[in-house]
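Morning. Coffee machine broken again, so started the prediction first thing and wrote up yesterday's gels while waiting. Chain of 273 residues, entered below exactly as on the submission form.
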Amino acid sequence: MSTDFHLSTTKSAASAGPLAGVNVLITRPVMPASRTATRVAALGARPMIFPTLIIEPVAPADAAPLKTALAKLGDYYAAIFVSPSAAEMTIAPLSSTPIKLPASLKVFAPGPGTAEELARLGVADAQMPTTSFASEGLLALPALQAAAVEGKRIVIFRGNDGRELLREALVQRGATVDAITAYNRRAPNTPPTGLLELLRAGKINAISAMSSDAVTNLVPLVPAAERVDRLFNLAVYASHERIADSARRLGFRNVIETQAGDAGLITALLQRT
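Came back before lunch.
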């Protein structure tokens, strides 16, 4: 079986920076992981990229709903991108130049990471919650209340097996909602040899977890006999309460809930004791 990637380590750009001595395992998909790594390395940390969540485009045979939705964006009141990967896999293939979406289309992101990815792709001014960076936060926005969405069409770009909360709540508020699979998610098939070597040598002291799937997929990569004393003792920096709860249920003992995105991770790492 071919591998998805090889574990990648990045030398810190500032060995005496405020994060010197932090060896953080970054479990995000490859593209956002590289940006996270650059940011923490600039502060003296040693990032190690080992994505435990693989993002893939939908198969051509399954892409018709996505193509149709993109061709008819002008028919929608709003487009919601549920993650940075949703933004990347939906918009990036369209053009290498900034995208001009219909002027009437309202664009929503659940948090700063997705909004940042949209802006990088040329889609500015996405609306997002100021707290609760998840579906619950989106549903609290005035522009997504029943008075605003009743009788309107909304498209949600998400991964396979995405949460139904957002779609169901908007339907209950009177909207017609198209939930479009823009990408597929799966666990990696990469042999964890390099990861295990670092873990056994004590060269990892923090884990960044920005999705429940990422932390869930990490655990089976480590032999059961080594999880309790090696893996579960590591500090997990979870970017949402739901992710933190998942980590604790899996057995991690030191779980720190952070604010969303790279900024939240960095703030929490700087506050470590």
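Residues 12 and 41 are 4 Å apart (CA to CA). Going to sketch it on the whiteboard this afternoon.
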